[in-house]
Description:
The chain is mostly beta strands. The chain has helices spanning 6-13, 58-66, 79-84; strands at 18-19, 21-26, 32-37, 41-44, 49-54, 68-73, 97-100, 103-106, 111-123, 126-138, 144-147, 150-153. The strands form three sheets. Strands 3-2-6-9-10-5-4 form a seven-stranded antiparallel sheet. The chain has a three-stranded antiparallel sheet with strand order 1-11-12, with no helix packed on it. A two-stranded antiparallel sheet has the order 7-8.
Amino acid sequence: MQRVSPASFREAASRFATGVAVLTALDEHGHVCGMTANSFVTVSLAPPTVLVSIMPGRMHRAISATGRYCVNVLPDHGRDLSRHFASQPNTGASPDYELVDGLPRLQGCIAWFACEVTRHVDVSDHTLIIAEVSTCDHRDATPLVFFSSRYHRGAGAPVER
Length: 161
Ligand SMILES: Cc1cc2nc3c(=O)[nH]c(=O)nc-3n(C[C@H](O)[C@H](O)[C@H](O)COP(=O)(O)OP(=O)(O)OC[C@H]3O[C@@H](n4cnc5c(N)ncnc54)[C@H](O)[C@@H]3O)c2cc1C
């Protein structure tokens, strides 16, 4: 099979617009950790199942240790928070958490999913973390969008069905 170059794969994949989430969890010492992720996917409705694809690192270790994480979907003004949780400190972001049912929840988001891990699947340099959603909530607000490696405000104008 002919393989695409990493640069061309990245460019093409970046044309798939996504929302931006921050995964939060307690690590094995009970400290809050967070990580920006746009690989969030809803997998099934019954039971409500989601996945995220993550690289080895602090969040990977925290989720592996505790089996729980929260997906916090960022609003349109969440760019600095996204950068903050993607190893780019000094954005001026000051995240506020509340602990709900033992999971840190990021304040001011437009949707939250509390997730209980059911399976880990290692694929190349990432792990698919598959989880059942135990609770979720949302509010009506405009999302932050990641498209073509840049942040955008809002979901754009609706197209008629
Ligand atoms: C819009 C956006 C979307 C993103 N979506 C995703 C996503 O869906 N999935 C994802 O994984 N990342 C994603 N990232 C990148 C991710 O947010 C950053 O890499 C973040 O710093 C990881 O946090 P951490 O605390 O888990 O990693 P840290 O522990 O801070 O490590 C940072 C990086 O070092 C490397 N690293 C650390 N420890 C190891 C180890 N033991 N073995 C190998 N490598 C290691 C990994 O590349 C890791 O991501 C996204 C970033 C942005 C801006």
